[in-house]
Amino acid sequence: MIFAVGKLLRPGGADERRAAVLAWMTTIQALCALFFIGDVAFDLYAGDGQALGHLWMESFVAVVLLLGLGVLIVELRQLLLRMDRVTAGLMAARGEMAEVIEAFFSTWGLTPAERDVALMILKGLDNDSIATVRGRAAGTVRAQSAAIYAKAGVDGRTQFLSLFMEELLADPE
């Protein structure tokens, strides 16, 4: 998300421009709300004898601005999350699947040995073949596979593979 926020300073794509506009609108709206809240507080403190209706109207405007500010912040957050998902999908589509795989592995906290086994699973090797290639016992590979599936939150090899297929086939929208 920090990457996306950094892009707000120099927007390029449509989503980035939209995020920049929302960020500026949020800032301006926050300043307007502060002005109205400060004005109401000053009028109450000064006791200028202004009409009560005027103070209620300014208070109402301040509340509406704050509610709108909340909506803008939620929309901006959702837009930035969407931009992150689209960026991950584009990376996969551009042949940068290795970086996508590495991001998944890092998120799951796989050990170096588990990473090797997971890559071989993605390449289509079965546990016995992985054990032969790595010079380990098949039981060790089965245990590492089970640990990988648990960390990925899946029940087995098929679901594990489907995580990456979904990433490749995901619609950027």
UniProtKB/TrEMBL annotation:
It comes from the Bacteria. This is Helix-turn-helix transcriptional regulator. Keywords: Membrane, Transmembrane, Transmembrane helix. InterPro entries: Sig_transdc_resp-reg_C-effctor, Tscrpt_reg_LuxR_C, WH-like_DNA-bd_sf. SUPFAM superfamilies: C-terminal effector domain of the bipartite response regulators. The chain crosses the membrane at residues 21-42, 54-74. Residues 107-164 form the HTH luxR-type domain. It comes from Ruegeria marisflavi.
